[in-house]
Write a structure and sequence with these properties.
CATH class of the largest domain: Alpha Beta
Radius of gyration: 20 Å
Order of helices and strands: EHHEEHEHEEHHEEEHEHEHEHEHEH
Helix content: 25-40%
Shape: globular
Number of strands: 14
CATH topology of the largest domain: Rossmann fold
Distance between the termini: 43 Å
Strand order of the largest sheet: 3-2-1-4-5-6
Number of domains: 2
Number of helices: 12
CATH superfamily of the largest domain: Glycogen Phosphorylase B
């Protein structure tokens, strides 16, 4: 198999949404060497693909990636981010790269793929991978984009989740809440402010509401959902495995919502400021509540919980 260096997206949700594109590249005959932010690497550990982190020091990152690429004759790369910086990294490391013609980087690309019309991010990543295969003269292994993501959990994360569930005596039926969404979208906060009002209704339905916050979210979570059981942070891979065992995952439009979709968890995504046609979880087990410009009422979310739970029981 030919080696292909792939620059992963920078954010957890985007990295999850790139999974079908990566699967297509691998099925089409490439041995993937993934390059990206350190924290996204664990999402791909179960695939056994090589992963090399970039630490943010451009010269040091170039040196390391150049050493990696030196072992390959005529190294080839695909850029999933749109940034000029991702093209500079691969080009300086001696990797001929292909990607979308964005951010004024076309001159650095061996093949500049025209920027597509507005589409879902999963489709966008898939499109650049498919077009890149055609540009390289490689027949794509298949033509139809899967309707689900396909995160392969590492065995150590499966075991980590089992051990953690035993250690904290987590009940069999539990609901994972993710009340925090970092940053802003178009200047507006990205999180719904009524997660704590879901705790009692979830308990009434026989589910234990739990939160596994990121290390820098602990204080914010205690304010947002004080009545839920708040556990210590765990690794991203362990968290994904926990999501796969949850009765339901309830999150803002955030990285957690995409992790849940990647492991096929029943889920609810609460939105109020983001564009769901571009970033909604890629899953037939997901239900969106709210819309851009209008956060949902608590009773709407509770109704959605009942609908999702009834589908999983049938």
């Amino acid at each position: 198999m030919s080696k292909l260096f792939v620059r992963l997206p920078n954010h957890i949700g985007d990295a999850c949404m790139s999974m079908p594109a990566l699967d297509l590249l691998e099925a089409s005959g490439f041995d993937l060497c993934l390059v990206g932010k350190p924290f996204v690497g664990e999402l791909f550990e179960g695939t056994l693909r090589r992963f090399d982190p970039i630490e943010g020091n451009l010269l040091e990152d170039i040196r390391r990636i150049k050493e990696l690429a030196a072992s390959v004759k005529n190294p080839k790369g695909l850029l999933l981010p749109n940034s000029l910086g991702s093209a500079l990294l691969f080009t300086a490391a001696g990797i001929k790269c292909t990607g979308y013609a964005t951010d004024g980087r076309s001159i650095l690309l061996e093949h500049a793929i025209p920027k597509p019309s507005r589409m879902h991010e999963v489709e966008r990543f898939w499109n650049v991978a498919y077009k890149a295969l055609e540009a390289w003269g490689v027949k794509p292994a298949y033509d139809k984009l899967p309707k689900r993501l396909n995160m392969k959990l590492a065995q150590r994360n499966e075991a980590g989740a089992r051990n953690l569930i035993s250690k904290i005596s987590l009940p069999e039926k539990f609901a994972i809440l993710a009340p925090i969404a970092k940053g802003r979208h178009e200047g507006k906060e990205k999180y719904w402010k009524h997660f704590n009002e879901l705790v009692a209704p979830l308990k009434e339905r026989g589910l234990t509401p739990v939160v596994f916050p990121a290390k820098d979210e602990i204080d914010a979570v205690k304010l947002a959902a004080p009545d839920a059981i708040i556990y210590e942070p765990t690794s991203l891979g362990n968290f994904a495995a926990l999501c796969s065992r949850a009765s339901i995952v309830i999150a803002n439009d955030s990285g957690v919502s995409h992790i849940a979709s990647a492991v096929h968890a029943p889920q609810i995504t609460i939105v109020g400021v983001t564009d769901t046609d571009r970033t909604s979880p890629w899953s037939d087990l997901n239900m969106i509540v709210g819309k851009k410009g209008q956060w949902p009422e608590v009773n709407e979310v509770i109704s959605a919980i009942d609908q999702v739970l009834s589908k999983t029981k049938s």
